[in-house]
Write a structure and sequence with these properties.
With about 270 residues, the protein is an all-alpha fold. It is about 65% helix and about 0% strand. The chain folds into 3 domains: about 100 residues; about 60 residues, no CATH class; about 70 residues, no CATH class. The longest helix has about 50 residues. It binds iron/sulfur cluster (SF4) (2 copies).
């Protein structure tokens, strides 16, 4: 993909996330108004109930309380979705800044600089404007340590490089790069993370308990998955939306079936 194509992709996503955020904000305003009205009705019914000692008012106030709680939960759901969309928009804005070489606000990995390392200082691997700062998209300590380790480990001779390459090929049953161009899935499936599961299961030749726990931590019902965008593979309905977006041409729906089979067969 060229830089311009990448920029168009990120810009399109930003606009889509902005529209979705506006939609959630409108719904939140609407729900907040309804919630206020419901609260007023609730208080009014309670007052009437106390004044007239009629059970009808108490029944009505019970219904109003249930309605009020329902509206609170719908409001909170919209709020979570709006936060998620805002974060996704920010991530795409970050990618555009990195394309423009504006990456100097990112963590620079200075903590990994080692003056005794044979070449990391000469190559400006860490620190302001370094390769680490340009490449870094990690969000966990383990991820940033892994990236630093990859940058500072000598590749060895050609034979070692060949072996490493072969083992990476073996590990990657599905050649997913986690670019997330296929996301969001309209049914909430977390496509790249399900592929991590599949690759690990193939690599180990079995579903280990930590894998099982991780898979179980995915959202298992669509309503929740649409909120978290972290849905399990079985939520895939084979709509094919993701197929046209994947630069690796992975047959995603077919592979999602495979993930589901592996994780249900080996329970
Ligand atoms: S084919 Fe499956 S994974 Fe792909 S977008 Fe449709 S539901 Fe999501
Ligand atoms: S677009 Fe393809 S390579 Fe990228 S995360 Fe999705 S499945 Fe993986």
């Amino acid at each position: 993909m060229t830089t311009d194509q990448l920029r168009d992709t990120y810009t399109g996503r930003i606009s889509s996330f902005q529209n979705t955020t506006r939609h959630h904000t409108r719904l939140m305003n609407y729900l907040a108004l309804l919630r206020l009205i419901m609260l007023v009705v609730l208080v009014w019914l309670i007052v009437l109930g106390v004044k007239h000692h009629q059970s009808l008012f108490y029944l009505g106030s019970g219904l109003a309380a249930a309605g009020f709680l329902f509206l609170v939960s719908r409001y909170n759901r919209q709020k979570d979705l709006r936060t998620l969309n805002t974060r996704l928009r920010e991530l795409n804005e970050l990618e555009i800044s990195c394309l423009d070489h504006q990456f100097h606000s990112r963590p620079d990995g200075m903590e990994y600089a080692d003056s005794s390392h044979p070449w990391s200082h000469d190559l400006d691997l860490f620190g302001k404007g370094s390769l680490y700062q340009f490449l870094n998209r990690t969000s966990t300590l383990k991820g940033s340590e892994l990236l630093a380790g990859m940058l500072t480990t000598e590749p060895g001779d050609m034979e070692t490089i060949g072996k490493l390459r072969a083992s990476f090929e073996k590990m990657l049953y599905v050649h997913c790069t986690r670019c997330e161009y296929c996301m969001p899935c309209p049914h909430g499936v977390n496509i790249p993370f399900n592929f991590i599961m599949l690759n690990e299961a193939k690599w180990f030749g079995e579903v280990t308990p930590p894998m099982r726990n991780w898979y179980n931590s995915f959202s298992q019902i669509e309503e929740e998955a649409l909120k978290t965008l972290n849905g399990a593979s079985h939520l895939c309905v084979e709509c094919g939306e993701c197929l046209k977006k994947c630069p690796q041409k992975i047959p995603i729906p077919e592979k999602m079936k495979e993930v589901s089979e592996i994780f249900s067969i080996q329970k």
